TrEMBL record:
Cofactor dependence: Fe(2+); Mn(2+)
Physiological role: Catalyzes the dehydration of D-mannonate.
GO biological process annotation, one example: D-glucuronate catabolic process
Keywords: Iron, Lyase, Manganese
Catalytic activity: D-mannonate = 2-dehydro-3-deoxy-D-gluconate + H2O
HAMAP family according to UniProt: UxuA
Protein name as catalogued: Mannonate dehydratase
Pathway: Carbohydrate metabolism; pentose and glucuronate interconversion
Superkingdom field: Bacteria
InterPro entries, per the entry: Man_deHydtase, Xyl_isomerase-like_sf
Gene name as annotated: uxuA
Gene3D superfamilies given in the database record: Divalent-metal-dependent TIM barrel enzymes
Pfam hit, one: UxuA
Length: 358
């Protein structure tokens, strides 16, 4: 596996220089953030991003994300225009040598939490999802702003999106995803860019909007929409693992052996209710996910692709983008690399005294 770190570009308070100093860090996961959703990413902007990252001694390993325009998810007439733009962006990314693109197909909202600074017993703060608090929230009232929520939506935009989604149930959303995938994957194949859909976070419907990338059966159904190595997955332990019915290490091993895992997000969550969870430190004993089993699965199927420590807590007085501070994510990377080294060495033949290359 190849350790990477998400970097939000020039506005990220964490510099590439700091990222490079994390032991074992090889690459960066980033995106072009100033192009409106649905427009083509210009080649020169992608090249500039890559050059900047490479001059800092790192690799641009993954683009996360190329967002999917809502008209595509809604199946509107205008979708063909946006899909063609999406394909053109993929061609540009391929031309520059980008190998993996992460994206999601969640209606309206990306990842959702009820609180961003919940104080854990050790004094650190973390993001949490409390089903009772979420039930009391009304995004249409516009009093809420959470990360993952596109702040460019006005109250009116949101209201009309919610109205449009009234006609879209899960089966319709599947249809629209199938339409998108059937146009995009052939271009990804020709451009040699592995597509890696991110699971819905949390993996259940929120605010009455449909969500479908949620469990093993649906991931399988997703791959069957267009069976190709290029039609793959981002396996996110925190997203899938927040549903107690998902056995994340088992799912990871299953899809990994089939060659569909192209990117891994490693994060631990502590399940504290039926549909409530707290993000925790990466350590297995801090949450409900056995991180040893996760890394063991990657080792078993010989995963060589990118992995990144996902959200961290805020520790040591750090402030910044919720979930995306430096310290706890750096600790996470080091822990994951440690697990990998131990598993690798344990599996080496007797007499092999090689140091693991992480
Ligand atoms: C949250 C992230 C997601 C992810 C997108 C991928 O921290 O994992 O926002 O980037 O869902 O499209």
């Amino acid at each position: 596996m190849k350790m990477t770190f998400r970097w939000y570009g020039k506005d990220d308070p964490i510099s590439l220089e700091y990222i490079r100093q994390i032991p074992g860090m090889k690459g960066v996961v980033s995106a072009i953030y100033d192009i409106p959703v649905g427009e083509v990413w210009p080649l020169d902007k992608i090249k500039a991003l890559k050059t900047e990252i490479e001059s800092a001694g790192l690799e641009l390993s993954v683009i996360e994300s190329v967002p999917v325009h809502e008209d595509i998810k809604l199946g509107k007439q205008t979708r063909d225009h946006y899909i063609e733009n999406y394909c053109q962006t993929l061609r540009h990314l391929g031309q520059v040598g980008i190998k993996v693109v992460c994206y999601n197909f969640m209606p309206v909202f990306d990842w959702t939490r009820s609180q961003l600074d919940y104080r854990l017993s050790d004094g650190s703060t973390a993001l949490i999802y409390d089903e009772h608090d979420i039930a009391k929230m009304d995004p249409l009232k516009g009093e809420l702003s959470l990360p993952g929520w596109d702040s460019s939506y006005t109250k009116e935009d949101l209201a009309s999106l919610f109205t449009a989604y009234k006609a879209i149930d899960e089966e319709k959303l599947w249809e629209h995803l199938g339409y998108f995938i059937n146009k995009v994957i052939p271009v990804a194949e020709a451009s040699d860019v592995l597509m890696a859909i991110h699971p819905d976070d949390p993996p259940w419907s929120i605010f009455g909007l449909p969500r479908i990338i949620t469990n093993k059966t649906n991931l399988e159904r997703f791959i069957d929409l267009y069976p190709s190595k290029y039609n793959g997955l981002t396996m996110c332990s925190g997203s899938l693992g927040s549903d107690k019915n998902n056995d994340f290490p088992e799912m990871l091993a299953y899809f990994g052996k089939k060659g569909h895992v192209h990117f891994v997000h490693a994060r631990n969550v502590k399940l504290v209710g039926n549909k409530s969870f707290q993000e925790s430190a990466h350590l297995s004993t801090s949450g409900s996910i056995d991180m040893y089993q996760v890394i063991n699965a990657l080792h078993e199927f010989g995963y060589e692709g990118p992995i990144r420590p996902d959200h961290g807590r805020m520790i040591w007085g750090e402030t910044g983008k919720p979930g995306y501070g430096l310290y706890d994510r750096a600790l996470g990377a080091t822990y994951l690399n440690g697990l990998y080294e131990a598993i690798k060495k344990n599996n080496e033949d007797e007499g092999g005294h090689q140091y693991a290359t992480i």
